[in-house]
Structures are given as C-alpha cells and as structure tokens.
C-alpha cells in the first residue's frame, strides 16, 4: 500500500470523526432546550386546565346552590323592580349588613392585591380614611342591574333593585360592595392607577378593563377573609365561588369599558392562582335493595 493510500484513508477517517463531533455539538443545545420547552408547555397546559376546571366548578355548582346569584345576562332582561318588592328589601338589608364587613376587610385585601402584582403593600391608613365616608346604601329602580359609586355622592353606594334581587348570598354581596368601594378609594385622583397599570401589563386588556379586574380581585380577597372568619357557615368552595357566579352567563357580551362576563371570569382565574376548587358533589352510590325473603307456608297440624 502506498503512502498516498495510507494518508487518504486517514483523511477519510478524520473526516468521518469530525462529522460525528459536529453532529454531537450541534445536537447538545437542542437536547438542553427540549426539557425547558417541554416544562413550559406542560406548565401552560396545567394552568389552562386549572382555569377550565375552576370555571366549570363555579358555574355547575351555581345550579345546585340555594343562594345562587342570578347571572348578569338574566339580570339584563329582568323587568325593573319596585323598592317595595320583598326580594329587593332583603337585598338592601343584606347590603347594609355587609357594608361594615367590607369596609373592615378591604384595606388588607387591597394591600395584598397590590403585593401580589409586584407592588409595595399599600398603607392601610389612607385607605381607611377614604372608605370611612361611605355610610349608606341607596336602592334605585332606574339603576336596574347595576351598582355604582359616584364622586358627587361619595358617601353612598347605589344599587339597582334588579341587582339587589339577584345577589342572594352574603359572599356575592360582599364581592360587589368591595368592587364599588375600590372605585371609591381610587377616587377622582386615580390613587390606584399603579395597580391598574400593573394588571394591564399582565393581561393586556386596557386600563378601564384592568380597573374592573382589580376591583373584582379585591372583592375575591375580601370574601376569602370573610370565609376564614366564618368557617362554620357551609362549604368554603361554594362560598368563594359565589363571588364569581354572576359571570356564569349564556349570552356573553362586552362593552367599551367592560370585558364580557365569561372573559372577566377567565382573566380573574388566570390572575389569581389560588382560585382552585375541588369537586365535592359526588353521586351517591345506590344501596342495593334487599328483597325480603319469601315466607314459607307452615303446614297446619
């Protein structure tokens, strides 16, 4: 064998070896990224499943809840209700009873929502000063299925009579009261704008919609605290779900300032990872019926 053939064979072997080295080196980054990509995809999938399960629980459990809130789309088609209707009176009484509870719990809930969104916990003192002026609930027939706070009437939260009729649990009422008090705290000087901006960055829904989401998140936190302090009053899952039952609509519409009810509920569950429910309603196992043993006819002696 000539020296040329030897060198040629060595060159060929070196070429093959270099090809294998290149393949291995180029494959390593892909293999290193694959588990991260897989973990990210798995995490996103698990969160999406959590969101769907949570919404499913809220709306399915609403159909079994004796104190269920009437969904927003059904409120919208309900005729206006006079102030003297028994359900309206019961709703007004519930709102008046829950107003002091909301005012007591809300400063801490609002501070947690701020901290959960990467902001410094808010000073509870100035929040307390802003909510002290809210002292009254005013039912209004013309407000229909709405509740509102207006700067021109800063001591009052106005409730439409249809809305008062629809909120049939303390938890649902607390969530709405807390929502409106959050608007009152924001006031005309937009004191809560940093929280709204942070939630807007996370959800990309616009500042007006972000303000509504923050107000809803505060309501959920208030209801959580209320449940922890009154834990003997029924299923904690059901009671927390009541803060969102109004969004279980069939006709899912939005407007210029509000997301649609189901979109709102989805965003709230995504923004609040603690919103998890376990199904507690299991079909009862039917006990097998025991057939009575046939009686034997005794012969008469």
Question: What does it look like?
Answer:
- The structure is a single chain.
- This protein has about 300 residues and is mainly α.
- It has one domain (about 55-270).
- Helices cover about 60% and strands about 5% of the residues.
- It has helices at about 5-60, 70-75, 85-115, 125-130, 160-165, 170-185, 195-205, 205-230, 235-240, 260-270; strands at about 135-140, 145-150, 155-160.
- Strands 1-3-2 form a three-stranded mixed β-sheet.
- Strand 2 and strand 3 (about 155-160) form a beta hairpin.
- The protein starts with a helix and ends in a 30-residue tail after the last helix.
Strand neighbour order, sheet with most strands: 1-3-2
Count, helices: 10
Ends: how far apart? 122 Å
| Overall pLDDT metric | 85
Q: What spatial form do the alpha-carbon principal axes imply? A: globular
Structural category is: mainly alpha
Number of domains: 1
Radius of gyration: 30 Å
- The string of secondary-structure elements, in order, is HHHHEEEHHHHHH
Any low-confidence stretches, pLDDT <50, length ≥5? 2-7, 23-31, 280-284
Q: Considering DSSP H and I runs of 4 or more, what fraction of the residues is helical?
A: 55-70%
Task: Tell me the number of strands.
Answer: 3
Strand residues, percent: under 5%
Major β-sheet annotation? 3 strands, mixed
Key traits:
about 300 residues; about 60% helix
Set down the secondary structure blueprint:
Layout: H1 3-62, H2 72-76, H3 86-116, H4 124-131, E1 136-140, E2 147-149, E3 156-160, H5 161-166, H6 170-186, H7 193-203, H8 207-229, H9 236-241, H10 261-271
Parallel strand pairs: 1-3
Antiparallel strand pairs: 2-3
């Amino acid at each position: 064998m000539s020296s040329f053939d030897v060198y040629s064979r060595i060159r060929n072997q070196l070429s093959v070896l270099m090809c294998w080295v290149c393949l291995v080196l180029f494959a390593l980054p892909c293999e290193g990224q694959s588990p991260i990509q897989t973990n990210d995809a798995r995490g996103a999938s698990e969160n999406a499943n959590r969101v769907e399960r949570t919404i499913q629980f809220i709306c399915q459990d609403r159909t079994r809840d004796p104190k269920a809130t009437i969904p927003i789309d059904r409120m919208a088609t309900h005729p206006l209700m006079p102030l003297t209707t028994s359900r309206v009176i019961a709703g007004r009484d519930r709102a008046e009873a829950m107003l002091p509870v909301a005012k007591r719990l809300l400063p801490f809930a609002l501070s947690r929502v701020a901290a959960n969104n990467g902001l410094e916990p808010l000073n509870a003192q100035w929040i307390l000063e802003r909510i002290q002026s809210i002292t009254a609930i005013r039912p209004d027939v013309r407000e229909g299925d709405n509740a509102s706070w207006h700067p021109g009437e800063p001591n009052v939260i106005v409730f439409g009579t249809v809305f008062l009729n629809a909120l049939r649990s303390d938890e649902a009422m607390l969530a709405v009261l807390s929502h409106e008090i959050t608007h009152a705290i924001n006031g005309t000087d937009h004191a809560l704008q940093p929280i709204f901006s942070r939630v807007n960055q996370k959800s990309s829904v616009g500042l007006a919609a972000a303000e509504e989401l923050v107000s809803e998140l505060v309501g959920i936190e208030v209801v959580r605290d209320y449940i922890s302090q009154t834990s003997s009053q029924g299923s904690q899952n059901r009671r927390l779900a009541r803060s969102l039952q109004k969004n279980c609509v069939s006709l899912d519409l939005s407007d210029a300032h509000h997301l649609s009810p189901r979109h709102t509920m989805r965003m709230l569950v995504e923004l609040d990872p603690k919103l998890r429910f376990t199904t507690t309603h299991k079909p009862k196992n039917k006990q097998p019926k025991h057939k009575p043993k046939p009686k034997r006819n005794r012969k008469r002696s």
